[in-house]
Amino acid sequence: MARINDHYLKLAGGYLFPEIGRRVRAFQERNPKADLIRLGIGDVVLPIGPSIRAAMHRAIDELGAEETFHGYGPEQGYDFLREAIVQHDFKARGVAVAPDEVFVSDGSKCDSGNIQEIFSSAAHVAVPDPVYPVYVDTNVMAGRTGPAAEDGSYPGITYLPCTEHNHFRPAPPEQPVDLVYLCFPNNPTGAAATRADLERWVAWAKQADAVLLYDAAYERYIRDPALPHSIYEIPGAREVALEFRSYSKLAGFTGLRCGYVVVPKDVVGKDAKGNAVGLHRLWLRRQSTKFNGASYPIQVGAAACHAP
Q1: What is the CA radius of gyration of the chain?
Q2: What pTM was estimated for this model as a whole?
Q3: Would 185 disulfide with which of 193, 218, 233, 237, CB 3.0-4.6 Å?
Q4: Pairing of the two strands 179-183 and 125-129
C-alpha cells in the first residue's frame, strides 16, 4: 500500500473558504430571506472589462490561424506581459525590477503556496495572525510544524498578532525565523503598511538574515499617496523580499487566473554548507520543471489591463 504524506493529516478540517461556503449555503437554506454580507473568499461580482475581453478574443483568433498559432509559451511568462508589468507596476513608481525577475503564473494563491518549496523543510516560518490560510496550510503540508493545538495554532510557526493595539500591523518577531509572510493591504484585516513599517521590516530582515514573502495582491485598493504600493519602494528590499501580485483584485480575474511573483536576483538563501544561493535561480528551475505557463489568451488579457 502506498505511503501517504502524513503531514496532510495535521490539517484541521477542510480548507477555510470551502468550509465557509458550505456553512453559508446551509444558513441560506434555513433563512432564504436573509440579506448576507459575505466575508469569505474574495471573489468578484462584476464582469471582465470590454478592452480585456476584446484582447482575449483577438488572442483566441490568433490561436485559430496557422500563421499566428501559439503552443507552449515560456514558463516565466511572455515578454509582452512581463515588460508591461515592469513599466506600469514598478518603473512608473520609480522601482527597479527587470522583466526576467517577473514570473507570470495562474494566480498568486499558487505562488504563495508553491514558493516554500525552494526553502528547507527545517525553515522556521512567521505569519501574521489572523492571516490568509494558504500561508499556514502549505507549510503544514511541507512538514514544518507539529500537529495542531486545541486553539488551531501549529507548533513550529511563529504567529505575529495583528490587533487594534498595533493597528493590525505586526512587528518583527523577537525570536529567529527564516521566512516571514506579510500581506498589505492585509487579508483579512484591511490594514495597509506605512513606509516606516516596511522600512522596519526590511532593516530587520537584513539583520536577521531572513526572507520576506510580501503579498501585495490588494495593492490597488491603496488610495493614500503616502503609502507604498510595493515593498521595493523601500531601499534594500531587493536583497530580502519576494513580492506577489494578482490580477484577481485588479481586473476581476478570479475566473481567468493570472498573477505573478517578483524574485530579484539580489535575494539569496544559504545551502547546507552556508554558501549563498540566489533564489531567482531556484524559482526559475522550479517553474521550468513544474509549470507550463499561464495560457496565451489569459496573458494577452492581463497585458490589456496595463494599456492606457
Answers
A1: 20
A2: 0.90
A3: 218
A4: parallel
CB 243 within 8 A of CB 219: no
Report d(CA 46, CA 300) in Å as an integer. 20
- Contact (CB, 8 A) for 10 and 147: yes
Amino acid at 161: P
Question: Nearest Cα to 279, choosing from 245, 231, 243?
Answer: 243
> In one letter, which amino acid is 5?
N
Distances in Å between the alpha carbon of 259 and those of 6, 102, 113? 31, 10, 13
| pLDDT grade for 42, boundaries at 50, 70 and 90 | low
The whole-chain average pLDDT of the chain stands at: 92
Largest CA distance in the chain: 63
Which secondary-structure segment (H or E) carries 80?
A: helix 79-85
Q: Is the alpha carbon torsion for 280, 282, 287, 289 positive or negative?
A: positive
3-state secondary structure of 292: coil
Q: Please answer whether residues 299 and 73 qualify as being in contact, where contact means their C-beta atoms are separated by less than 8 angstroms.
A: yes
- Please check whether residue 254 is in contact with residue 248, taking contact to mean a CB–CB distance below 8 angstroms: yes
Q: Which of 172, 158, 173 is nearest to 126 (CA)?
A: 158
Give the distance from CA 280 to its chain's centroid.
16
Cell triple for 200 = 522596519
Residue with cell 547546507: 272
Left, alpha or beta for 187 (phi > 0: left; psi -120 to 50: alpha)? Answer: beta
Q: Is 140 in contact with 192 (CB distance < 8 Å)?
A: no
CA 159 to chain centre: 18
No. of helices (H) and no. of strands (E), the chain: 9, 9
Is 183 within 8 Å of 244 (Cβ atoms)? Answer: no
Q: What is the pLDDT of residues 120-144, one digit of tens each?
A: 999 999 999 988 889 999 999 999 9
Specify the amino acid at residue 244: F
